[in-house]
Amino acid sequence: MSERRDMRLPVKMQGRYRSGNGRVHDVQISNLSLTGCRMFQNHSWLGEGDPIALRIENIGPIDAIVRWKDRTEMGVEFINALHPSVLDHLAAHFDRRGQ
């Protein structure tokens, strides 16, 4: 795993991704940065290097690549970094850690 480039924000947000086979899966985002995020899903057939189209709350699709995966979590890197104002918007309006 390479060194992280951006600070990760601890969050609790809803997400949904579409994999290469066209299937759509709901996930929970547990941290977020300009260049990627960590997602929780009960089970996934994705592997490292697989491309996905991710939607985080009302933002997306965001093209991403799976960089690591274990049984219930995975980390993805965004193909194009989020604009800082998009990250601020998500953190200000959709973080559900208190719920």
Pick out the low-confidence regions: none
CATH topology: Thrombin, subunit H
Give the class from helix and strand content and strand pairing.
mainly beta
Q: Strand tally, please?
A: 6
Total domain modules: 1
Please, how many helices? 1
Report the top-level CATH class: Mainly Beta
Tell me the β content: over 45%
CATH architecture: Beta Barrel
What is the CA-based Rg, rounded?
A: 12 Å
Distance between the termini: 32 Å
- The mean pLDDT is 88
CATH level 4 superfamily: predicted glycosyltransferase like domains
Any overview of this molecule?
It is a single chain. The mean pLDDT is about 90. About 25% of the residues are buried. This protein has a single domain (about 10-80), classed as Thrombin, subunit H (Beta Barrel), CATH 2.40.10. The chain is globular. The protein has one helix spanning about 85-95; strands at about 10-20, 25-30, 35-40, 50-55, 60-70, 75-80. It has about 100 residues and is mainly β. The chain contains 1 helix and 6 strands, in the order E-E-E-E-E-E-H. Strands 1-2-3-6-5-4 form a 6-stranded antiparallel beta barrel.
Show the helix and strand layout:
Blueprint: E1 9-19, E2 24-32, E3 36-40, E4 51-56, E5 59-69, E6 73-78, H1 84-94
Antiparallel strand pairs: 1-2, 1-4, 2-3, 3-6, 4-5, 5-6
Notable traits:
99 residues; mainly beta; Thrombin, subunit H; 6-stranded antiparallel barrel; 48% strand; globular
